[in-house]
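Run log // design_07
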């Protein structure tokens, strides 16, 4: 039988109940083992980095040729050498003269250490002969040394009929068919970002598991009648891929379906011309380590290592992408160790959701493919 005093003490402490979410920073009391991984077991190709960016962006769509350069090779190579990164792929190399500058600044300045991809020429989208102009732009990009084509999430979410006004343009719009086919013709893989995390299509409210992230970046929310649903965007992607069996599509961020690995597996099974990268998604993969481990076992030849790294100061806003030693150490720890319950990003408050991750402990044969060999095969790089 409890005393009156104890009953009083079980009353909630009202002064403590209204702690603000942003002030809640619990420290784990779990005495889990910690296995730091300074260098990867095999050389790494980071297949997803952003070292340049098109300067002129209109309503979320890159237009024009001028590029902003985020860093010089001299800024990046010391980290790459310390962290075992043989090659970085700069996905947002731009188009036309800007692309040529990106290639000069990176690929040609440090041969073998950097490769550059081109992007669609959205600035030309309103031209009546866009399909031909875009095919020509891919031919130019191939000639000047671009290793592939990268798409940001523009199609389905940003690009409109008159670039920044009118109806949204889906990824299956037939005006891009010549672009996909030109990539196939020149042996250039397409690195395709379509849609975004499922939570970004839901209200930013108390039930949204990425509430803090969306509150910090309201422009990342695609909730509302002005946007298609996540399912509609992914269905358009699948219709487009089905029309282009000779083009190779690497689906960025685990196909933007890391929360639903069964759906990603179904896509990989349906389309043999697809792969995925893991960039910016170890937070998702690492909170379901058993399903993720099975996924890596089954699709070990079709997974690319990538981080989405952006050098400072531009990367400072998004901690899970900031190019630094710690970013790579976390990825290596996730892939190589069986450590439990650790942060997926170099930041105190988790930037995607409030959870921790568990390492996969992948065997050497899979690590070697994911770190290096799958990307080397795709991009026709030397194997050892
Ligand atoms: Zn990216």
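design_07 sequence
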């Amino acid at each position: 039988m409890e005393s009156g005093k104890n009953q009083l003490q079980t009353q909630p402490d009202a002064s403590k109940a209204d702690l603000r979410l942003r002030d809640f920073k619990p420290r784990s009391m779990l005495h889990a083992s910690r296995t730091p991984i300074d260098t990867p077991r095999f050389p790494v190709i980071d297949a997803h980095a952003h070292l340049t960016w098109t300067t002129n962006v209109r309503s979320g769509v890159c237009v024009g040729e001028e590029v902003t350069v985020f860093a010089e090779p001299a800024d990046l190579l010391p980290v790459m050498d310390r962290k075992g990164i043989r090659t970085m792929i700069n996905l947002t190399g731009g188009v036309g003269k800007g692309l040529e500058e990106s290639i000069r600044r990176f690929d040609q300045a440090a041969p073998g250490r950097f490769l550059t991809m081109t992007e669609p020429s959205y600035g030309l989208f309103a031209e009546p002969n866009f399909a031909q102009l875009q095919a020509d732009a891919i031919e130019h990009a191939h000639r000047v040394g671009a290793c592939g084509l990268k798409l940001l999430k523009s199609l389905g979410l940003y690009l409109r009929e008159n670039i920044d006004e009118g109806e949204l343009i889906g990824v299956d719009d037939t005006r891009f068919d010549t672009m996909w086919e030109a990539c196939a013709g020149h042996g250039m893989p397409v690195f395709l970002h379509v849609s975004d995390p499922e939570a970004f299509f839901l209200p930013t409210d108390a039930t949204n598991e990425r509430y803090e992230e969306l509150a910090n970046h309201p422009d990342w929310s695609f909730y509302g009648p002005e946007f298609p649903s996540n399912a509609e965007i992914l269905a358009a992607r699948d219709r487009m891929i089905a029309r282009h069996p000779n083009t190779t599509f690497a689906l960025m961020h685990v196909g933007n379906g890391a929360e639903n690995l069964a759906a990603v597996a179904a896509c990989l099974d349906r389309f043999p011309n697809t792969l995925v990268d893991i960039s910016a998604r170890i937070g998702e993969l690492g909170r379901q380590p058993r399903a993720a481990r099975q996924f890596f076992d089954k699709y070990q030849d079709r997974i690319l290592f990538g981080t989405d790294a952006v050098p400072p100061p531009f990367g400072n806003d998004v901690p899970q992408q900031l190019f630094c030693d710690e970013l790579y150490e976390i990825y290596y720890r996730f892939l190589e160790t069986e450590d439990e319950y650790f942060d997926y990003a170099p930041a105190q408050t988790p930037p995607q959701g409030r959870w921790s991750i568990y390492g996969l402990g992948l065997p050497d044969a899979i690590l070697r493919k994911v770190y290096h060999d799958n990307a080397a095969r795709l991009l026709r790089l030397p194997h050892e």
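The chain has one domain: 35-378.
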